[in-house]
C-alpha cells in the first residue's frame, strides 16, 4: 500500500541561520550544542510514512517537537530542510495560494483547546470549514449536521457553545474537521484537556468513526496509553528526533532505548498485548488435539487470560487454517504483565522446562 502522507528527513530549526544549523545537525551536532548559540532544533531528521486509513500517533514529552512536526505536515510551518508529500504532492514545493487550497480542502486540524466562535451556533461552528471553502449555506448546514450526528451531537445544532460541556465542545471541533471531508486529520493533543472518562469516550468514538470513515490521521499525545489505544503505529519523539516508530507491541515489548522503556512502565499491558505477542512459538504440534481453549494470534490478552483460567493446560494459538502457530502457558501470561524489559531472566527449573507443553486434557 503506498503512503498517503510522507515525511522525508524533515528539520525545523528556530533562530539564526537555520539552514546552517540543519547542516550541523546532519553532521552530528546535537540539540544542546545549537542551543548554546541561541538556536532551537525543534525537529531533527524526521522521516515516516502513513498509509491511507492509518492512525499514526506521535508521542513524546513536552518540548520534544510534536506540534512543530505537525505544523510542517500541513504547511503552516515551512521545514528548514526535507519534504512533506501528501497524496504524492510535495507540499514543500507549493506556493502560498496552492498550499491554502490544499489545507482548506484536504487537511483538517483539531487542537487541544478547540476555539469555538462564541456567537455562532453549534451548527455554524461545525460548518466553519465548509464556509471557508465557499460551500453554499444549505449544503454546508446539511453536511455539518451530519458530522455533528456522527459525533453524537444530534439535537444540539441550534445551541450556543457555552451551553455545551468541555467534552461536547471538543466534539464540535471534531465535527468541524469531519464536515469538510478532508482526507487527512491532524489532531494535536485533541483529547488532553478532557476528564479521563470523557477522554476515553472520545477515543472510542474516534475509533468507531474511523472504522467507517477511514481517514488518514496523525494524532499527537504525550499519553502512551492513549497512543496505544489509538495508534496503528506510534512514533516516539525525544529532543526533536523520532527515536522509535513501530506498533504498540513493538514499543511495549521491544523499546528502542531506556527513554522509550520508561514510558511503557505505566502502560496497561493487558490492553495492548495479543496472543501473537505472548505466545511460545515453538509448539510441540499436538496442542490443538485437546480441542478446547484455542485462540488466534490477534486474540486480546484479557480473553486469553480467561481462556487460560478455564483449562489446566496451555492455550493453543491457531492460524486461519487451524494450524498451531504457538502456545500460551500461564507463565507467559503472568510474565507479560510484569515489568517487561529489564525483568529478571526466567529461571530454567525442571518445572519450567515442561511448562510449554500440553500436560493434561480438560
Ligand atoms: N515559533 C517558535 N520559535 C522558537 N522556538 C520554538 C517555536 N515553536 C516551538 N519552539 C521550540 O521548539 C521546541 C519544540 O516545541 P513543540 O511545541 O513542537 O513541542 P511539543 O512536543 O509540541 O511540546 P508540548 O507537548 O508542550 O506541546 C521547543 O523547545 C519550543 O520551545
Ligand atoms: Mg505541542
Question: What can you see in these coordinates?
Answer:
- The chain is of the alpha/beta class and 362 residues long.
- Among the domains are: 1-87 and 183-196 and 206-267, P-loop containing nucleotide triphosphate hydrolases (Rossmann fold, 3-Layer(aba) Sandwich), CATH 3.40.50; 271-353, CBS domain Like (Alpha-Beta Complex), CATH 3.90.1280.
- The chain has helices at 18-26, 31-35, 66-73, 96-106, 122-126, 128-133, 137-150, 166-179, 196-213, 224-230, 248-253, 258-264, 269-272, 275-278, 301-310, 330-337, 350-353; strands spanning 5-14, 40-50, 55-60, 81-86, 89-90, 107-110, 184-188, 216-221, 233-238, 241-246, 294-295, 315-318, 324-328.
- A six-stranded mixed β-sheet has the order 6-7-8-3-9-10, with helices on both faces.
- A hairpin with a 2-residue loop joins β4 (81-86) and β5.
- α7 crosses α8 (166-179).
- The longest helix has 18 residues, at 196-213.
- The protein is globular, with a radius of gyration of 24 Å.
- It starts with a strand and ends in a 9-residue tail after the last helix.
- Bound molecules: adenosine-5'-triphosphate and magnesium ion.
- Pfam families: ABC_tran.
- Residues 336-362 are annotated as: Disordered.
- InterPro entries: AAA+_ATPase, ABC_osmolyte_uptake_ATP-bind, ABC_transporter-like_ATP-bd, ABC_transporter-like_CS, Gly-betaine_transp_ATP-bd, P-loop_NTPase.
- Keywords: ATP-binding, Nucleotide-binding, Transport.
- This is Glycine betaine/L-proline ABC transporter ATP-binding protein.
Amino acid at each position: 500500500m503506498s503512503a498517503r502522507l510522507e515525511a522525508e528527513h524533515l528539520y525545523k530549526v528556530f533562530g539564526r541561520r537555520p539552514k546552517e544549523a540543519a547542516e550541523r545537525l546532519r553532521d552530528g551536532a546535537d540539540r544542546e550544542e545549537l542551543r548554546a548559540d541561541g538556536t532551537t532544533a525543534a525537529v531533527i531528521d524526521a522521516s515516516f510514512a502513513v498509509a491511507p486509513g492509518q492512525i499514526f500517533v506521535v508521542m513524546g514529552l513536552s518540548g520534544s517537537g510534536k506540534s512543530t512536526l505537525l505544523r510542517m505536515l500541513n504547511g503552516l510551518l515551512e521545514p528548514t530542510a526535507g519534504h512533506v508529500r501528501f497524496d504524492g504532492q510535495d507540499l514543500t514545493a507549493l506556493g502560498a495560494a496552492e498550499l491554502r487550497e490544499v489545507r482548506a480542502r484536504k487537511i483538517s486540524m483539531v487542537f487541544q483547546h478547540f476555539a469555538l466562535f462564541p456567537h455562532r451556533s453549534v451548527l455554524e461552528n461545525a460548518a466553519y470549514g465548509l464556509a471557508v471553502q465557499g460551500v453554499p449555506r444549505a449544503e454546508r448546514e446539511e453536511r455539518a449536521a451530519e458530522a455533528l450526528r456522527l459525533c453524537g451531537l444530534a439535537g444540539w445544532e441550534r445551541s450556543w457553545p457555552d451551553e455545551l460541556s468541555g467534552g461536547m465542545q471538543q466534539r464540535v471541533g471534531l465535527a468541524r474537521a469531519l464536515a469538510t471531508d478532508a482526507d487527512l486529520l491532524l489532531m494535536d493533543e485533541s483529547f488532553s484537556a478532557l476528564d479521563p472518562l470523557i477522554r476515553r469516550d472520545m477515543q472510542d468514538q474516534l475509533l468507531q468513526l474511523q472504522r467507517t470513515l477511514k481517514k488518514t490521521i496523525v494524532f499527537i499525545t504525550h499519553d502512551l496509553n492513549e497512543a496505544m489505544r489509538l495508534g496503528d503505529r506510534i512514533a516516539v519523539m525525544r529532543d526533536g528526533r523520532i527515536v522509535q516508530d513501530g506498533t504498540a507491541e513493538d514499543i511495549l515489548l521491544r523499546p528502542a532505548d531506556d527513554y522509550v522503556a520508561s514510558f511503557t512502565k505505566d502502560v496497561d499491558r493487558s490492553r495492548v498485548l495479543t496472543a501473537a505477542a505472548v505466545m511460545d512459538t515453538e509448539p510441540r504440534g499436538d496442542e490443538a488435539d485437546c480441542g478446547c481453549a484455542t485462540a488466534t494470534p490477534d486474540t486480546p490478552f484479557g480473553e486469553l487470560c480467561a481462556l487460560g483460567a478455564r483449562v489446566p493446560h496451555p492455550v493453543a494459538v491457531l492460524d486461519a487454517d487451524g494450524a498451531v502457530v504457538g502456545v500460551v502457558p500461564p507463565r507467559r501470561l503472568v510474565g507479560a504483565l510484569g515489568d517487561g524489559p529489564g525483568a529478571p531472566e526466567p529461571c530454567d527449573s525442571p518445572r519450567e522446562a515442561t511448562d510449554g507443553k500440553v500436560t493434561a486434557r480438560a
